[in-house]
Design goal:
This protein is of the alpha/beta class. It contains 6 helices and 11 strands. A hairpin with a 2-residue loop joins strand 6 (about 105-115) and strand 7.
Length: about 200
Amino acid sequence: MIVLGLDTCLGACSVAVLDGPRVLAHASEAMARGHQERLAPMAQAVMAQAGLGFSDLARVAATVGPGSFTGLRVGVAFAKGLASALSVPAVGVGALEALAAEEDGLAAAVIDARRDQVYLQVFEAGRALTPPEVAPLEAAVARLAGIAGARPFTLVGSGAPLLAASRPGAQVLTPEGCDARHVARLGARRAVSPLRPLYLRAP
């Protein structure tokens, strides 16, 4: 299955096209704003690099949040429009799930939600242990302590440094955004359902 993966939720614009497990092409640019202007040209360039036309796609996968309200709407709208034009499914992938996709052990995906809050979800070997939530920093620290105890732990995402002091020795990873290659892989396995933004607090 040839899948186009997109991420515009966080501090980067990322696009990838995969054929099954094989990455055909990938591009990513760090950016706080401007996803709307860059997404379509980047998708076109990635498809050209892969030697494919958009008509070769079997599915489009996009991150649906949590994250920047404007950014996630850009990705969702583009995915919906492209999928509709091609008559293929569009599926959503949570940004927290995509951030933690590479971690084999216990990991918390943490996005800085501002206002002394974080978006948080805990995973173990890719399996979600908690639902995505928005939490004050103190509550997030308590949540991680209750789940992880003294076990080795990875914090990944823009909010990872905010919790790092409470987890001495934890591995801290701060990618600019989600990797569209993971978005495409996760999206290929996802059951088709309506593509909607994931808002954990009111826009």
